[in-house]
């Protein structure tokens, strides 16, 4: 006998209503569990890799090239003077660099390779680093000509977002000024210590320079990182033909710095491996081989060897070097060096690798350098991270030698 379910028992919920309620309850439970898992994943995979900002670099013009410069020009035989512009004080600037927040021991002992791949600082960061590889900062300057006094005026104002060239994560920039094709006579600004956003505000006067000769010259600015103990590192350059500038009044320019084309060409590449052993507190550096090294000798070859410096903060701790390979631009070294590095000091450690050309009768020449640390260039940082991510395993990588 058919009975109407709605009339079966007044006030009691039907079977369909109970079924729908059960489905809704199960769905809400699954949603809560999933949300909890997502929150847990975010906490485990996100907060562990939260980065901290380190502020470096403040203007400092009290040291370095602080004296006024004067040179004689071939055009007219008069001097070129430079004097800083008074009355303007450089503003405090800072450069923020991203570093891993967790300790090295946490990275080694508790992180898996999968977590490293999912964390910030892996593929996505490397893509950004690749995009910014050519970002060398920019420089502001002014140019003008006084026809009555036959004087070309060049004012170097400031630079922004310069790359860090020192292992301490900053630079000591200054600017060289040329009027090409004359490269024998140059002028220089002061050095700004530990500053990636320097203010110079220095004016250079090229006096007694006829206008018809000025328009045949190219204003060339080269920004370098001052190094007291070794060769200054080029940061970037700007060149502007003066015949394309309206010199009747001071013109101000912002120009992006480009890689320095000093005619030296490529310095070659070096293949090396790093192996970090956290239990032994050591790093093994294996200098494997080099290719296409720059010829430093008159005969079109070089006698290369490799120096490996262990640096802690600003101090040189230990140095080792390979044997010299005679007349060889593609040498094979295969020499390993072990350095004792406590885990807690790893973040402040830099390994400087220098390829040298051996000379018997004169000073040995630097072919190129590589800086390996948390704060180096994109390729170097990748190698350092890979070394940490794979303890006790040699990690090999090619590196382009830099000036």
TrEMBL record:
* Principal location class: membrane
Give the transmembrane ranges: 20-41
Q: Which GO terms describe its cellular component?
A: axon; lysosomal membrane; peroxisomal membrane; phagocytic vesicle membrane; presynaptic membrane; synaptic vesicle membrane
Q: Recite the UniProt keywords alphabetically.
A: Calcium, Calmodulin-binding, Cell membrane, Cell projection, Cytoplasmic vesicle, Exocytosis, Lipoprotein, Lysosome, Membrane, Metal-binding, Palmitate, Peroxisome, Phosphoprotein, Repeat, Synapse, Transmembrane, Transmembrane helix
GO MF entries: calcium ion binding; calcium-dependent phospholipid binding; calmodulin binding; clathrin binding; phosphatidylserine binding; SNARE binding
A Pfam short name: C2
Name the residue ranges with Basic and acidic residues bias: 90-100
The record describes its membrane topology as: Single-pass membrane protein
List the residue ranges of the region (Disordered): 53-106
Give the record's GO biological process terms. calcium ion regulated lysosome exocytosis; calcium ion-regulated exocytosis of neurotransmitter; plasma membrane repair; positive regulation of transport; regulation of calcium ion-dependent exocytosis; regulation of endocytosis; regulation of insulin secretion; vesicle fusion
Domain C2 stretches: 135-255, 266-399
Where is this protein found?
Cytoplasmic vesicle, Phagosome membrane; Cytoplasmic vesicle, Secretory vesicle, Synaptic vesicle membrane; Lysosome membrane; Peroxisome membrane
| Family per similarity comment | Belongs to the synaptotagmin family.
Quaternary structure per UniProt?
A: Homodimer. Can also form heterodimers with SYT6, SYT9 and SYT10. Interacts with calmodulin (CALM1, CALM2 or CALM3). Interacts with CD63; required for localization to lysosomes. Interacts with APP.
The protein here is known as Synaptotagmin-7
């Amino acid at each position: 006998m058919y009975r109407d379910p709605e009339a079966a028992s007044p006030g009691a919920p039907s079977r369909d209503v109970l079924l729908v309620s059960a489905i809704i309850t199960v769905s809400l439970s699954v949603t809560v569990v999933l949300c909890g898992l997502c929150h847990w994943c975010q906490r485990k995979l996100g907060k562990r890799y939260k980065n901290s900002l380190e502020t470096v670099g403040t203007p400092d013009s009290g040291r370095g090239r602080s004296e006024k410069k004067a040179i004689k020009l071939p055009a007219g035989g008069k001097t070129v003077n430079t004097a800083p512009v008074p009355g303007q004080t450089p503003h405090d600037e800072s450069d923020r660099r991203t570093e891993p927040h967790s300790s090295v021991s946490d990275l080694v002992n508790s992180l898996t390779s999968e977590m490293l791949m999912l964390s910030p600082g892996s593929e996505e960061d490397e893509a950004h680093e690749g995009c910014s590889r050519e970002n060398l900062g920019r420089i502001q300057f002014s140019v003008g000509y006084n026809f009555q006094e036959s004087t070309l005026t060049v004012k170097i104002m400031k630079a922004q977002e310069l790359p860090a060239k020192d292992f301490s994560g900053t630079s000591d920039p200054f600017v060289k000024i040329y009027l090409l094709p004359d490269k024998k006579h140059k002028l220089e600004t002061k050095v700004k210590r530990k500053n990636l956003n320097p203010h110079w505000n220095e004016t250079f006067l090229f006096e007694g320079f006829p206008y018809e000769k000025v328009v045949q010259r190219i204003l060339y600015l080269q920004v370098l990182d001052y190094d007291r103990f070794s060769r200054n590192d080029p940061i970037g350059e700007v060149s502007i033909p003066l015949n394309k500038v309206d010199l009747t009044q001071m013109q101000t320019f912002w120009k992006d710095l480009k890689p320095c084309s000093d005619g030296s060409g490529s310095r070659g590449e070096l293949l090396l491996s790093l192996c970090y052993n956290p239990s032994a507190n050591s790093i093994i550096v294996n200098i494997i081989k080099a290719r296409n090294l720059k010829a430093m000798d008159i005969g079109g070859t070089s006698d290369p060897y490799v120096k490996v410096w262990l640096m802690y903060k600003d101090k040189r701790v230990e140095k080792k070097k390979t044997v010299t390979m005679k007349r060889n631009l593609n040498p094979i070294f295969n020499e390993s060096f072990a350095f004792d590095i406590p885990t807690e000091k790893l973040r402040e450690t830099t390994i400087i690798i220098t390829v040298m050309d051996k000379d018997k009768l004169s000073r040995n020449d630097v072919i190129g350098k590589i800086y390996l640390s948390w704060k180096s260039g994109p390729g170097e940082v990748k190698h350092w991270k890979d070394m940490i991510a794979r303890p006790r395993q040699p990690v090999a990588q090619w590196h382009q030698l830099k000036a």
